[in-house]
Amino acid sequence: MFKWYQDSTECYVFMDDLTADTLPKILAIDQEDRWRQGLDIHAIDKVYAFMGSRWFTRGWTLQKLLAPTTVLFYSSDHHYLGTEIELAPLISQAASIRVAFVTQETHIYKPSVAQRMSWASARTTTRPEDMAYSLLGIFDLNMPLLYGEGKKAFRRLQGEIIRQSEDESILAWGLDSEQKHFTGVLADDPSDFKGSGNVWTMEKLRTFDRGIVKDELTNKGLAISYIKLLIDLSGTARNFGISGPKVGITLKCFNVHV
Description:
alpha+beta, three-stranded mixed beta sheet, 9 helices, globular
């Protein structure tokens, strides 16, 4: 389906929970002036209704936003609201996606795996499998759709990403989690990447160079060649109640705090 949207000339979005008076006439400002002067979206009355639309919380609508060349938004009563470029500042906040990716100024395959996963962290689908299947185009992947497998689909998706990509940020999840118990190395759900929106990869970092060894997901777990670090977590909230040093794995990515 991602390719359908990608090959389309225009994609029309009807927001069934919005009416024409929901969004004020923010398009009256000339486009160039708006970008030059900036758009104070917090000063615009009723604009939060647009950003709070259910459309921004559904799993399948992520590809409908990012794949097409042009997206035109309409209210439930068929009044034109604007394009993804005209509404980019609002969409960026509503979807937690940088403006450059919303407007396609920067290709959506440019950011890290963790960052792209974070775009789906607040979205839901009726079927648990669709949470994974709706992301296939976002990662330029193909895999069989096996309805009935439940959350195993998301594990398969991560396995395909590991197999086809060298982006280690797929392991950089749970950054805003308060959990104090052990988990597997892979995430259970895109929501685990909620705090990973500012994770970037370090493609050329010689300190972390592990040669040509490729990480691999096997039937026994994740096989990875790594630099071992002993970390003392005794004074932190994440010591899991166990004293002594822990073993850490260096990843070719970093988290930018903004």
